[in-house]
């Protein structure tokens, strides 16, 4: 797998750039936002993934490793191929996409051409839990660790768990990456259930 390319930008088109690597010009398909950061004649580095089909080898490039990982993750969803995954990343920045998936925000996801309501629901169902593992919860917009900690501890106290036990369970989940309130509560309860 070709995980990154670095070299001089030879040409920039509407949907790809040509980057010279070791004397070979590689056509790298990417998003308009990434293309806008490239300048002909200057050196560039892109995180990449190679998609192999019977009739083609296509190199896709991204400004960050996180975007590349999201591209691969999107393709694990039924009915999502490389073109649609690239379209999703062209419309939604990685942070915005992760937030929409974590929150189940169908409206944001349907802004992508080719993603209808059913497709957006499928994306949420299949990726909601995986997105938290992909990016640290600190990078998910709207996730406040102190607020989550307080809400989950309060919920566990309301369920009758001792304060020290509740706090320890929540800290354990947050140390493993955490997430939103519902995710942390679910994981904390699972951890407390194992200790009984």
UniProtKB/TrEMBL annotation:
A GO molecular function for this record? Answer: four-way junction DNA binding
Q: Where does this polypeptide localize?
A: Cytoplasm
Q: Is-annotated flag, keyword Aminoacyl-tRNA synthetase?
A: no
Q: Name one GO biological process term.
A: DNA recombination
Pfam families per UniProt: HHH_5 (PF14520), RuvA_C (PF07499), RuvA_N (PF01330)
What are the boundaries of the region Domain III? 144-196
Keyword annotations? ATP-binding, Cytoplasm, DNA damage, DNA recombination, DNA repair, DNA-binding, Helicase, Hydrolase, Nucleotide-binding
Q: Which InterPro entries does the entry mention? A: DNA_helicase_Holl-junc_RuvA_I (IPR013849), Hlx-hairpin-Hlx_DNA-bd_motif (IPR003583), NA-bd_OB-fold (IPR012340), RuvA (IPR000085), RuvA_2-like (IPR010994), RuvA_C (IPR011114), RuvA_C_sf (IPR036267)
Keyword Transcription regulation appears in the UniProt entry: no
**From what superkingdom does this record's organism come?**
Bacteria
Q: Name one GO cellular component term.
A: Holliday junction helicase complex
Q: Which Gene3D superfamilies match?
A: 5' to 3' exonuclease, C-terminal subdomain, DNA helicase RuvA subunit, C-terminal domain, Nucleic acid-binding proteins
> Residue limits of the Helix-hairpin-helix DNA-binding motif class domain?
72-91, 107-126
Query: What does the UniProt record say this protein does?
Result: The RuvA-RuvB-RuvC complex processes Holliday junction (HJ) DNA during genetic recombination and DNA repair, while the RuvA-RuvB complex plays an important role in the rescue of blocked DNA replication forks via replication fork reversal (RFR). RuvA specifically binds to HJ cruciform DNA, conferring on it an open structure. The RuvB hexamer acts as an ATP-dependent pump, pulling dsDNA into and through the RuvAB complex. HJ branch migration allows RuvC to scan DNA until it finds its consensus sequence, where it cleaves and resolves the cruciform DNA.
Assembly and partners are described as: Homotetramer. Forms an RuvA(8)-RuvB(12)-Holliday junction (HJ) complex. HJ DNA is sandwiched between 2 RuvA tetramers; dsDNA enters through RuvA and exits via RuvB. An RuvB hexamer assembles on each DNA strand where it exits the tetramer. Each RuvB hexamer is contacted by two RuvA subunits (via domain III) on 2 adjacent RuvB subunits; this complex drives branch migration. In the full resolvosome a probable DNA-RuvA(4)-RuvB(12)-RuvC(2) complex forms which resolves the HJ.
Output the NCBIfam families linked to this UniProt entry: ruvA (TIGR00084)
What remark about domains does the record contain? Has three domains with a flexible linker between the domains II and III and assumes an 'L' shape. Domain III is highly mobile and contacts RuvB.
Q: Which family does it belong to?
A: Belongs to the RuvA family.
Protein name according to UniProt: Holliday junction branch migration complex subunit RuvA
Supply the source organism for this entry.
Crossiella cryophila
